[in-house]
Specification:
The chain is an alpha+beta fold. Helices cover 49% and strands 18% of the residues. The chain has helices spanning 12-21, 33-40, 44-56, 73-84, 87-102, 146-153, 157-170, 172-192, 235-261, and strands at residues 31-32, 60-62, 68-71, 106-113, 116-124, 139-141, 195-198, 205-211, 222-228.
Amino acid sequence: MSDKTSSQPLVTGLLRGLSVLRCFDHGRERLGSSDIARMTGLPQPTVWRLCKTLEHGGYLVADHDGKRFRPGLPILTLGYAALDTLELAELARPLLEEVATEFKGACGLSTPEGTHMLFVQRFEAPRAYLNFILRVGSEVPIVSSGTGWAYLAGLSEPERGKLLTQCRKEDPLLYREKAEDALAAISSYATSGFISNVDVFFPGLATVAVPLTKAGRWTPYVLNCTTATPVLADAEIRQQAGAALVRVAEQLLPIAVRLEAGA
């Protein structure tokens, strides 16, 4: 990760508009200006002007009463264009399919987006045991999800502390409820080589996850396998699922490093 110089010209309005668009996700398809103001920390009048500007450009669509907004078609077009250029996501898919099918669940590739993890690839096995569905483009909180914990585990201690501070500021209640579980999982990563999250992110679901990081080779990507808790209830089965993800990570890591080097 490299710092950007402060001398670069910035269009603050554009950054604010993008922060508004990032608020929308699976489960948050329609939001009012008060919701967006709370999530972004921007003043509500500012959020309202941004939303109306984005609506004018077609990036947001207002409900009939004009009080709530949802993403417009141009946003989907931009999203799919970005995914088309993400070589890693395409290469990961067949490998994730194998693991998801073996453990009757869903596997994904995610990357950090603020205090959440954004899924850029996901495969759900035909007979997956799931009671909570995510899609490409979905986000999950870093502090409560297995993917988030794995990302934290792959960071240096200073970077991890900084991100956890951001998580605490954005959602103090969630942080108080989940931080202890997150820290325990991160601590166990050193010996197990993967992260386990059982019934913490969502009741009835268990996740194993690994960061695409090894021996100083850092990338901002995480692999996960999620299925019904009974499937991964046995520690030996979780070990098998974790080992399967580690093997996938070893194949993808050189590609991810190369992509990051060229970013």
